[in-house]
Batch of 3 targets.
Target 1
Amino acid sequence: MKIHESAENYLETIFILSRRQPCVRSIDIALELHFSKPSVSVAMKNLRENGYILVNKEGHITLTESGLRIAETMYERHTLISNWLITLGVNPRTAVEDACRIEHVISAESFDAIKKHTQGNP
């Protein structure tokens, strides 16, 4: 099943927030992304129904195995592409913004090639 770019962004945000704080709630996601609470609530419902997140009775959100896999992929792509662009001389703000778009459309083959190149592997 193809996951939408917005869902990938939400999963990546949950992943990032979970590394910063002990628990993640919808309000934390809304504040991080500058989205309305109702918009985030709808997105969380969709992610839960599709098996990407779990929400406990306190409203704490955790990634399922499939959600975590997607989130880690997006985070790795974002981080590597941002850093690569900055190394190439791109303004850091522009590099981060461009990486946000590129991370969703780049093929696994192209990403792996960039990753090998940036790590000095042939």
Target 2
Amino acid sequence: MLIFLGILCSYFLGSIPTAYIFGKFLKGIDIRQHGSGNVGATNAFRILGKGVGIVVLLIDILKGALAVIVVGNIFDFNQVFLRLLLGVVVVIGHNWTIFLQFKGGKGIATSLGVLIGLAVQFEPLRLVLIVTLLAWSIPFLISGYVSLSSMIAALVLPVAMLLTKQSWELLLLGFVFCVFIFIRHIPNIKRLLAGQERPVNFPFRRNF
């Protein structure tokens, strides 16, 4: 029963559609009808502004961390597998939220929050977190493509876990997150191949 309640709390925590809520309250719009149509930080950044986009990003990250740390502590989940289960469920909630007919974001920020939460709990995972952040940041600064950077980081995550000899539970988590991210980025892959994906404009890159 405790496991079921923990899973339920994590799902509903992840299901909070942050970008949608900010769009409705600040601009009176349904963010799903604008930009990429995605309920995530990148679309919020473009449609609602940089400040709001950053807030949405931080809240979505926080959702993942809270699920692993706070929900895990409330239900006294001491086993690694149970913490990982909460992490997977909170990302599922974000990606397929019950509040928007099971259509949500792409899970990048919330997955990062889960990794941060796990790194707080399990020290050996901190190096994996750093490597994954670098695997996202470097391609992003070079290309400006959030989607491409996210998929590269998704591929690096399970590899980094394997090379640092993490437990099989963590390896499974890395693989699951990688699959989730690629599934959610299928439209982006099509746009990248067609040369239609929009990069983030940097002041130092005039060709954008």
Target 3
Amino acid sequence: MIMKALITSLIILLSVLFLQAQESTWRVLQTVDFEQVYSEEMGIHIDVPKFGPWITALEGQEIDVQGYIIPLKGKIEQSYFMFSALPYNMCFFCGKAGPETAMEVYMEEGDKLKYTEDKIWLRGILELNDNTVTSPIYTLRYAQVIKRKD
């Protein structure tokens, strides 16, 4: 039990150090693998994410991530939207990238974010999804805009 806790703590510490050395957390999040499985519910084969230890160590942790707003309700202030490692014209929803390059974002309660085409930084709690095919594999909750140098 103690050994497992030490290993988990070490993975979290290494993940944080690794993320600080990277341009963004997307490099870590993009290390996800996918396995094709047959979905009885959908009647087709679907890709199910298989998160490695670097990613699972970040679940429930506060992370910083940079990217672009992909608005869901037009280019207005929103508290819920998609966020992409890539600009709007190259995002996952346009067919130019994979699901590991996007996440849904829920802003801190009461906060809304004005749409911009510029790259921004967000900070929030990361959630992983490997069981609901109709939702993104990553969610950022309690998100706040942060100012950070690129």
